[in-house]
């Protein structure tokens, strides 16, 4: 016959409250006492069914209570996750914009540097291609040469070394000056040439050039 | 006691005040999730109720421990329930729109759990009907809400815990007879 203590014992077994020794005794009794074994099985099923019923009851009560709660309303919802997402978006956007601005800045700086470099290279190239200025060119004023070029005479004070085949024949025959314009009478390669210039030292310059032309390179 | 243990205890014992607090604080969250993921307001109410019932069952397990914030756990349970329901309805969700952090809770039970256990529910309701109101309360309080004999004695106005113990013995014996005629 199952009594009150047996029911309590089965309850303790179901909820896992028995000690190891009590559990061994309990299991041994199930093996030899069929009535007790049946009571255990029925109690386990009854408690499972009670749990299901409890959940159903809870659902019913909730459905009834929620109707009343709905009237009072609930708190407006603010997503904490969305707020975090929004902050993440703001930070990411800021970083992207800053990164892009930095990228543009670096690109433009690089381009300017490139332009400057090209310009410098171009100037250097032009400088390299330009003939090395001689003493005479530094002393003969460009203005006077232009002026002489434009003059009606056919005498051209261009680079004399180019026109002289034999520099050893070069000589200053005569120098005269009228109103600040110096007239140089030159002779070379068996011919004579008259050159007019505002430079009073052109004779020295031309003689130096002729001497330099005679020296081996 | 953990900061949110009172919510866990309240749900475990079906405390109406706590259940209302959960509704006030978290129904908006559930509604928002369901609405943004192909569901209506009535779906949200069903999910909310089923989630609380699921928690009621879960929290009554003797080894249950809440390791995350209640809000996170509750959102996760609701999310799981609603996605299972969508799957059951054949609604395809390309991408779930989430608004809270969630954790893996496992499927506590599907929203159609009542349909699945219809037979059990009919059987136990029939068996309980013949027990009387007090017996029903004693059994549910003891076996489901895990209340002590002393607590039951106070709630149901019995003289002491021993009286409840004797009464409970009679009730469970009768229930077993009703379930196994």
Q: In summary, what is this structure?
A:
By secondary structure, chain A is mainly alpha-helical. In chain A, 66% of the residues lie in helices and 11% in strands. In chain A, helix 1 (4-14) crosses helix 3 (34-72) and helix 2 packs across helix 3.
What is the number of beta strands of chain A?
A: 3
Largest sheet of chain A: 3 strands, antiparallel
Helical fraction of chain B equals: 55-70%
Rg value of chain B: 19 Å
**Oligomerization category of the chains in this entry:** heterodimer
**CA-to-CA gap between the ends of chain A?**
138 Å
Q: What's the arrangement of strands in the largest beta sheet of chain A?
A: 1-2-3
Shape of chain B: globular
- Provide the residue-averaged pLDDT of chain A: 78
The largest inter-chain interface, given as chain pair and residues per side, is: A-B, 39 and 52 residues
Low-confidence stretches of chain A: 133-162
Number of helices of chain A: 8
Shape of chain A: rod-shaped
* First-last Cα distance of chain B: 45 Å
Q: Give the helix/strand class of chain B.
A: mainly alpha
Walk me through this protein's architecture.
The complex is a heterodimer of chains A (217) and B (181). In chain A, α1 packs across α3 (34-72) and α2 packs across α3 (34-72). Chain A is built from eight helices and three strands; from the N terminus they run αααααααβββα. Chain A has a three-stranded antiparallel β-sheet. In chain A, 66% of the residues lie in helices and 11% in strands. Chain A has 217 residues and is mainly alpha-helical. Chain B has 181 residues and is mainly α. Chain B is built from nine helices and no strands. The chains are: A mainly alpha (217), B mainly alpha (181). At the A-B interface, α1, α3 and α4 of A face α2, α3, α6, α7 and α9 of B.
